[in-house]
Amino acid sequence: MSEVEHPVNFVEEIIRTDLAEGKNDGRLMTRFPPEPNGYLHIGHAKSICLNFGLAKKLNGQCNLRLDDTNPSKEETEYVESIKADVKWLGFDWGDGLYFASDYFTKLYEMAVQLIKSGKAYVDSLSPEEIREYRGDFHTPGRPSPYRERSIEENLDLFERMKAGEFKEGEHVLRAKIDMSSANLNFRDPPMYRILHAHHHRTGNEWCIYPMYDFAHGLSDAIEGVTHSICTLEFEDHRPLYDWFLEAVGYQESNRPHQYEFSRLNLTYTVMSKRKLQRLVFDQHVEGWNDPRMPTIAGLRRRGYPAASIRNFCERIGVTKNHGVIDVGHLEHAVRDELNASSPRLMAVLKPLKVVITNFPDGHVESFEAPLYPSDESFGSRILHLTKEIYIEQDDFMEEAPKKWFRLSPNKEVRLRYACLITCHDVVKDEQGNITELHCTWDPNSKGGTPADGRKVKGTLHWVSADKGVKASVKLYDRLFNALNPGKGKDDFIEDLNPNSLEMISNAVLEPELMNIEAGKTVQFERLGYFTADSVDSVPGTPTFHRTITLKDSWAKLAKK
Hints:
Layout: H1 10-20, E1 29-32, H2 42-57, E2 61-66, H3 76-88, E3 97-99, H4 104-116, E4 120-123, H5 127-134, H6 151-163, E5 172-175, E6 190-194, E7 208-210, H7 212-223, E8 227-231, H8 238-247, E9 257-261, H9 273-281, H10 296-302, H11 306-316, H12 327-341, E10 344-345, E11 347-348, E12 351-356, E13 365-370, E14 380-385, E15 388-392, E16 412-415, E17 419-428, E18 434-441, E19 459-460, E20 463-464, E21 469-476, E22 501-509, E23 521-524, E24 528-532, E25 544-548, H13 553-559
Parallel strand pairs: 1-2, 2-3, 8-9, 10-23, 12-18, 16-19, 21-25
Antiparallel strand pairs: 4-5, 5-6, 6-7, 11-22, 12-15, 13-14, 15-20, 16-17, 17-18, 21-22, 23-24, 24-25
Helix pairs in contact: 2-11, 7-8, 11-12
């Protein structure tokens, strides 16, 4: 399915105007700057598509920069997962792969410059005291008793902090701005803290690390970023972003500018990194790439095509309006893509044996079936009808209502691509459970079309008992059963869907499905789209899981 074109958003309008006016010497550079302290999720995908997409569309450059300023929470695993996710979504940073840690020396020098200019000082209040002195929206802040230390004392203390003389929390370096500001971010924000932690790139070279607000904008400036595009929660931080740039000497004409857009929020989904970490660390899911997770790794493993996520991000648009997007829009984009790209085959998930009593023993009827019914030029496969077949348990009802179009006693249905059959006997075990059905077939209905032209409404999928192969299938559903998980609850975990995973161990599949490569998605006719799991599958023995249903059954349930 091709990518779709959409109207120009407000960020693109700003960039086009800047380029037309010759700002930044006609140059465009954006960046995607995640912190490597977890896996990226669908919300990050919106930012990735915006930053990389605009750079590509307008002949600019988008860097991938890992803002690795907190070694206590960052790991190389997260770095590699971020790089993999960006590439999988279809974007390339070229030579623009950077880390905030690349600039540690430069950032330190800038901090010293601010101390020398009287714009930064070392504070020795405890973290609790700093919070108290800072005040809140109703209470103005109070200056720290250490705020007026001399430049010489501040330089000495900061150098000793860097040398590792102090424990964590003993001192911090703070910007000296305005403790009475209505914007809490201006109340002498911290610039550096002491952390005796091993860094994934610099090892133990540093024991002081820059805070995000200090490092982020200056890293943009060092790289030559022109448009710093971020989500709305950073809107109140923009004055601080600009203050640091101006304080170290970047002029209006040669520094980046920040622009904010609304973050992506989805129904039935949590995207707080803290909450996602809890799901993983408390083993509510299999890991960051669990197919029920909204992480890009989870969506990739589930079988969501990268193009469907790009198209979804385009369709929802880029605005400054807060809101929650119905997850059905994402699922619709996935179905659109899979409908065009997925071959059709048949599988029976909950088998019920059918014995065709008038079918010759040992006889096999072969039927050709297209892999893509909408375009038969893409190939076909051969189906083998034998005396014993399997249908879905849900496709038979012994006492059926009037408008039941599937199989029931003395009712005729079509076996997809094959023939018509009629049920004449129901076999049960001692407990009254149905174990098999006895049916007859019409030899004059080969291909599913009766010779006399009679109309048959019901069509069932099926698999030969002799030719079919057994397989395990996981049925994934939404991870949460609440529209807004955690709302009105003490804990968002209370809204976990207990039926988000159903294991099926005795599914029967067309034999061609055993040759599907791991990660490939197909449509099980009438059942939905299923993917050969990229983790659990082994060559020749794939494990399938449901990627998405054919229709949004949740929307129907919500209307009842």
